[in-house]
Amino acid sequence: MKVFEHLLPQPAFHLSTQMAAEFDALLAAAAPGDRIEYCLPYPKWQFLSYLCKSHGLMMHGSQTQGIAVVELRQAQDVKAFSAQQAIYATDDGIFAMFFAIVDRKNFSPLSLFDSCIEIHLPANLKMGPFYFFRSRTQPWRARRGAMGPCTFCRVQNFNKIRPSR
Q1: How many Cβ atoms are within 10 Å of 95's Cβ, its own excluded?
Q2: What is the reported pTM?
Q3: Which of 27, 35, 47, 157 has the most neighbouring CB atoms within 10 Å?
Q4: If pLDDT is split at 50, 70 and 90, which confidence band does 44 have?
Q5: For the segment 57-92, what is each residue's pLDDT rounded down to a tens digit?
Q6: 135-148, pLDDT tens digit by residue?
Q7: Are the CB atoms for 148 and 64 separated by under 8 Å?
Q8: Coil, strand, or helix at residue 21?
Q9: What does the DSSP 8-state code read for residue 64?
């Protein structure tokens, strides 16, 4: 098996000053707590990633509509860190969108294996992010186009997963 055979690379993202200005204008047009109707010609994941990285935000992707307050939930996971009562969020637009698309309610119990990784090399070089998504079922195919919300939270309220070797 090749090391990267099952990993999907993040598509290229070249942020221009025009894109950043349009992303910021769309955010500024929404009041806190409002739903942002995305209407720009760029991939939505780029908008979501930009907002997080430039405004100190994290995203929680879910199929649940109308989340007014993001609350702690007990996760079911084989890893101790991932099996705690927590709010799971990311600053990666693709990873958050994945969880906003996955239909967990109609595929219960859902056996889901996912990861978003970066590989840090000497001399401050980085590869990735790379994505891994697997499930015994295919909960993302059942409701094509039925993306739930990505709810934003302030980054200072989260603990980061420690890098593993």
Answers
A1: 23
A2: 0.79
A3: 47
A4: very high
A5: 888 888 777 777 777 777 766 666 667 777 778 899
A6: 766 655 545 556 77
A7: yes
A8: helix
A9: -
> With contact defined as beta carbons under 8 Å apart, do 155 and 30 qualify?
no
Residues 6+ apart with CB under 8 A from 134: 6, 112, 113, 114
The answer to whether the CB of 116 falls within 8 A of the CB of 92 is yes
What are the structural domain ranges in the chain? 17-27+42-105+140-157
For residue 44, the tally of other CB atoms under 10 A from its CB is 14
DSSP string, 22-62: HHHHHHHTSPTTPPP----SS-HHHHHHHHHHHHTEEEEE-
Token pair for 23: 């992303």
Q: Tokens for 124?
A: 């401050």
Which H or E run contains 63?
Answer: none
pLDDT of residue 26: 95
pLDDT, tens only, 92-150 = 999 888 888 876 666 666 667 778 888 888 888 888 899 887 776 665 554 555 677 88
DSSP 124: T
Between the alpha carbon of residue 74 and those of residues 67, 84, 85, 88, 122, the distances in Å are 17, 6, 4, 10, 37
Taken as a whole, the chain contains a residue count of 165
